[in-house]
Amino acid sequence: MISNKQSSSEKKIRVGISIGDFNGVGLEVIIKTFLDSRLMEDCIPIVYGSSALAKEYRKALNILDFSFNIIADANDANSKKANLVEVWKEEAEITFGESTQQAGKFSFLSLQAATHDLASNKIDVLVTAPINKNNIQSEGFDFPGHTEYLADYANVETPLMLLTAGDLRVGTLTGHIPIKDVAENLYHDEIVTKLEIFEKTLKQDFCITKPKIAVLGLNPHSGDNGTIGTEELEIIIPAINEAVSNGILAFGPFAADGFFGSPAYKKFDGILSMYHDQGLTPFKAISFDEGVNFTAGLPIVRTSPDHGTAYDIAGKGIASELSFRNAIYVAIDVYKNRQDFKELSSNPLKIKKARTSKNE
Questions:
Q1: What would the pLDDT profile of 22-31 be if each residue is shown by its tens digit?
Q2: pLDDT at residue 344, as a whole number
Q3: Which of 143, 186, 250, 337 is the most buried (most CB within 10 A)?
């Protein structure tokens, strides 16, 4: 058992992992990630699924030199192995590349079990493998995606979907909604709130003291002074001005094409896009296979790879585990940064004295 006296930098983080849609690449990238036993030096992986399913998956992909430590409860996890909590016993039929009702059912059971253990403090962070947003829909899951489900579970009204890769961090104002509904879901107060959440997460989760945040416009050329739309003049600019008056270093609005088409995006610690594809398309063009989806604004730490189920390559053994591995590392780093931030905020003199002593 890990001693409570260990500092956040020494403690092994208990990483809970939901398997996502088993007909996609979720289990493949999970297994490939933990084939490298060095990850167990920093964390205790706890996957929520089925031992029979994992066995069939490994057999189908010819991954023979790996096995999970099967446990009934997360509290029984072995700190030196990749663990799997047996969530269900029912036999699963793997049909790679296909969306099935059973895959949706089990992806929710996995997520539900992991989320419950996160709330019960049996795990420290949650990393979610990709789901199919259609087949997971059920009485227990009536949400556009993970972000909204976890926000509802945590009773948080305004989460922020944040994609991160190195120093590139892109958040979205609106989430999983149709393009035709974006403009009517643009609100002054929502922009200010998202900028506040963005600034807070950059400080407490990414250790940036004075973060600079770029805000993208909605319309081409940011509306060209009202010629191609008035949302910038009526909503976005006033919201930026209010955020600035509150001490947030927010800049913009910038036209998305020119902003990402030049080195301008490298000058900011965070970028707030107005809608999903406006931010995620350039992000994935720059960082695909490396990026991580992090849900900011929640009291818990949740990350995921920046790709989907990848049905087109499922079962072929060619999926890259890089994004999923990075999701593990980001979750660990954010958890430690958040613990250190809380400690520093509660007693800054003690932390300063301790750091001074180390340098003496």
A1: 999 999 999 9
A2: 78
A3: 250
**What is the SS3 assignment for 333?**
helix
- Among 254, 279, 296, the domain-final residue is 296
The predicted pLDDT at position 4 comes to 37
Residues 58 and 101 occupy one common structural domain: yes
**Amino acid identity, residue 71?**
I
| Same domain (yes/no): 261, 304 | no
Residue 6 lies in a domain: no
Q: List phi, psi (to 5°) of 263.
A: -75, 5
**Residue 199 contacts by C-beta under 8 Å, 6 or more apart in sequence?**
211, 213, 248, 249, 270
CA end-to-end span of the chain, whole Å?
33
Closest C-alpha among 256, 160, 149 to residue 202: 160
DSSP string covering 104-122: HHHHHHHHHHHHHHHHTTS
Q: Residue 211 and residue 330: Cα distance in Å, rounded?
A: 18
Would you state the structure tokens that stand for residue 219, as one six-digit string? 């319309």
Q: List pLDDT tens digits, range 62-118.
A: 988 899 999 999 999 999 999 999 999 998 899 999 999 999 999 999 999 999 999
Report which of 318, 293, 325 is spatially closest to residue 308, judged by C-alpha positions.
293
Phi, psi of 175 (to 5 degrees): -105, -120
Long-range contacts of 320-324 (CB under 8 A, 24+ apart): 320/29, 320/289, 321/28, 321/29, 321/30, 321/32, 321/33, 322/289, 322/290, 323/29, 323/289, 323/290, 323/291, 323/292, 324/29, 324/30, 324/32, 324/33, 324/127, 324/129
Q: pTM for the full model?
A: 0.89
Neighbours of 256 (CB within 10 A): 25
Chain segment 217-252, per-residue pLDDT in tens = 999 998 888 899 999 999 999 999 999 999 999 999
Shared domain for 139 and 243, answered yes or no, is: no
How many domains does the chain contain in total?
Answer: 2
Confirm whether 192 is domain-assigned. Answer: yes
Can you point out the beta strands (E) in the chain? 13-18, 43-49, 69-71, 83-86, 125-128, 160-165, 168-172, 212-216, 249-254, 270-273, 292-296, 302-305
Residue 348: band (very low, low, confident or very high) from pLDDT cuts 50, 70, 90: low
